[in-house]
Amino acid sequence: MRSLSSLPILLSAIMAVAASTAQAGAITDYFQSGESTVIHEGSYVPQLTPTTHILTNSIGCPRTYGGFDFAILQANVGGISGSIAPLGISGTVTPTFNLDIAPRIYFGRERSDGLGLRLTYFHYDHTTGPSQLGVDTRLQVQSLDVEATSRIQFHDSDLLLSAGFRYGKLMHNYQVTGLGSLGFDSEGGGLTIGGRYTRGIGHTCWDLFIGGRASILLTDNEIQIPGLISIIGEESTMKVWEGQVGVGRTFDLYNRADLVTEVSFEAQNWDAAAIAGLVGNDISLFGPTFRIGLSF
């Protein structure tokens, strides 16, 4: 009779142990799955928010993008001193360039894993008015970039890395009407690498970005003074540095298309080696840049 009377107590103890085991298993499953779990008798384990995010280059759907940059740049080319009798030049010529539009066209494609290909063409061409010595100065800069890209996204940030081939051409001429010109040309190709970091500004619709690019080109250089001298220096190097900082905003259009708008400050430096130790080029371009593009 004593054993039968203790049976309800024993069954109650077994049921309590089973309930405790089930609740512990539910908590274990929650931490393993990362999801919220409802437990016995209305008890609830709150959903935890992860404190870290895994770096990933998965950007979702493949994207095609393209657009135009309208860079309003001013050139700084320094001055040239000396006396060139055939041209009637003596003293120092320091050309002053005004702001001028330099268009840039870009087009690219990205896969869902963040890898892609991008083409970019840039062109600057400006001629100053006659200086106090009656000398016109013309500067022309061109570049074509073919690059592989990799986009990485983490937290609220976006990092775009690029590497590829650049073709570049630099033409710099001093001209006296009726007498001829002193010309310096540099043309070639080489490696270019770049990066751009973008992050949202607080809870606004705007993004802040900073980017840069470095290129080293193997070039053929030529200096010409009509009727006096022509020197060709082969396989010299030209170094190019570029930087941008600005803000942008993206507007949603129809069918997953986006309108991209940006405004930034841009600076470039083209440093070409001197030919025979006579004349080299160290040219800077700087000014505001406005971008409009599509992504779909």
What is the topological layout?
Elements: H1 2-5, H2 7-33, E1 37-38, E2 44-45, E3 63-76, E4 80-84, E5 89-93, E6 100-110, E7 115-127, E8 135-154, E9 157-176, E10 180-200, E11 206-225, E12 229-252, E13 258-275, E14 279-295
Antiparallel strand pairs: 1-2, 3-6, 3-14, 4-5, 6-7, 7-8, 8-9, 9-10, 10-11, 11-12, 12-13, 13-14
Could you please describe the fold and organization of this structure?
There is one protein chain. The chain has 296 residues and is mainly β. It folds into 2 domains: 2-45; 63-295, Beta Barrel (Lipocalin), CATH 2.40.128.100. It has 2 helices and 14 strands; from the N terminus they run H-H-E-E-E-E-E-E-E-E-E-E-E-E-E-E. The strands form 3 sheets. Strands 3-6-7-8-9-10-11-12-13-14 form a 10-stranded antiparallel β-barrel. It has a two-stranded antiparallel ribbon with strand order 1-2. The radius of gyration is 32 Å and the shape is elongated. Keywords: Signal. Residues 1-24 form the signal peptide.
